[in-house]
Fold:
Amino acid sequence: MGHTAIFLPVMALVGWTFVVLLTIPFRRFRAAFKGEVTAADFRNGESRRVPLEVSLANRNFMNLLEAPVLFYVVCFIYYLTNAPIASFVTLAWIFVGLRVVHSLIHLIYNNVMHRLVAYAASNVVLIVLWLLLLRTLLQAT
Structure:
């Protein structure tokens, strides 16, 4: 496995983020065509009239721009430092998988407990990625 393999899970998460981003206008237009919302409902973000299905896509997109920023940073540092951690790429893929599962739960049936498990597990993996990188950096000094 080449050193640039770390960018494959990064690109997968970026791709997934774009998929979720594209669901936002789809859901908004569908709600508008049903007469559930108007453009004025989005003037200052989302009004209370916006159906939950519509606002969930936007909230999930925001989720994909929060903690995953730390994922992107740790992967980039891993690449820059040429840190030789064999399991790092595997853990990166697990993180991406858990974030996709979190999104699917959020956007399809939104069971809070199921979503929490996926979210918490992804955060544990993220912490492990940082700890592995820290250990490697400390060993190199």
Q: What stands out?
A: The chain has five helices and no strands. The radius of gyration is 18 Å.
